[in-house]
User: Fold Vacuolar protein sorting-associated protein TDA6 from Letharia lupina.
Amino acid sequence: MGRSPRSLDGGLGDGENVSREAVLMILEKEGDGVEKAPQNYSSPCRRSHDVAMKNRRTSVKLPILLGFILVAFIFTTPHTVPVIPTRLRGQVGAWLKMCGSHLGWQDPSVIDIRTRPEDLAKDPRVMHEIPQYVLDYAPLVHLYSEEQFWPCDIKEHLFHVTPELNYTPIQGLPQLNLSNLDQLNEFEQGRHVFLTSNDNVEDRPDWLGGQINIPDDFSDDSKTDCSDSRATSARFRKQSHGGHSDAPAVLLTINKGDGIVDAFWFFFYSYNLGNIVFNIRFGNHIGDWEHTLIRFEHGKPKVVFVSEHFFGSAYSYSAVEKIGNRPVVYSAVGTHAMYATPGTHPYILPLGILHDETDRGPLWDPALNSLTYTYNHVTDTLHPSNRTPDAPTQWFYFSGKWGDKFYPLNDNRQYGFAGEYHYVNGPLGPRFKHLGRRKVCQGRYSDPCVIKDQLDPDEVREWPGLGEGDDWPDPEMRPPGLPEGGDD
Assistant:
């Protein structure tokens, strides 16, 4: 499809392509008066040999030596030079080997981060400051033009739920808020606590829809009629900057050392409307956390990751759509899965195909209203940033689910087919999204993480299956402060 994917971890290169001509120019650069070698891939060694045989002047040997030192430097210093395209790596490595060099090049996916995060733990700037470049490159989110379930305020969400264990309300608790939610971890470590809706979700109470939180950067009449007006959808497409939502996003910045900073933007919705297969809807749940990650190296954006259900996609910063310098991402109707392009996003299932749908609906600027934090993924410590110093932190440590527990099959709201269910568990919070990941992708370290250099709106994905919904991840993806035991 014309893309050149690469696998990246913590130490990122610039992600720019280097042409064969540029490499050959470096390898062939010599003093004036020396005859140029033909342009072919074996020329660097043959040229060195020819020069040595035909002209033994010391004034020529020095530039040749410097040329090979420069080449070795390029392939062993990925933090300061562009990543060499995959198609050239084998050829250049062969050149170096033929010429007697054993330095080779170092794949940036295996570079160690030399500055440890724990070394930065007491630095007040790291603990509390959000770098300005994080906001300068904050994502803009196109919500779907006919969305029914808009962004919601996590504080408001807590007024409409009751914590339950095994479908039984927990008694004797004060009113939940963002400053005491972590006390629920006293019950079975919080793992089996579900923030259960006080209303029957099939009655669609207003608080699930979040209509009051639609971004306000368009006319009032379009805001009140956005659910069924194609004319307003056309107006949305003309937006050049994002609007304010009364539902705050959550920004977590993580300094991972060696100039690597991850900026996680989390978006919360009180309801997730599942996908349809064969006119049957699967995967509904109360509460929905989605995120976009932008990875920076020395203040420059390198990679954009967008969450899609239990996985996601990663793109080089240069590949994604932008307004100014800011990446543009798309939230799918109902599921709120994040994508880099508008349109249809199909998934292959064993028994059919489902799809997510995105378009250029209301453009949301989460930087206009967000709770901002810094997080140390080694010590599992969250700090409010200097931009929102009064932001509560206790909610972050809640280890349970932000919605109802999977409804049993004897509940008349529930049905299942081929391992998929109409209603599934509510989600875990941001702390469980593998914040300490070295790869930009969300999965296990053994899973591949492909950074796409081009957008592919026609990509077809394989559906991973939701089962009964979210649960504690594997130990390697859990936050360090979480108990290791308790696996089911």
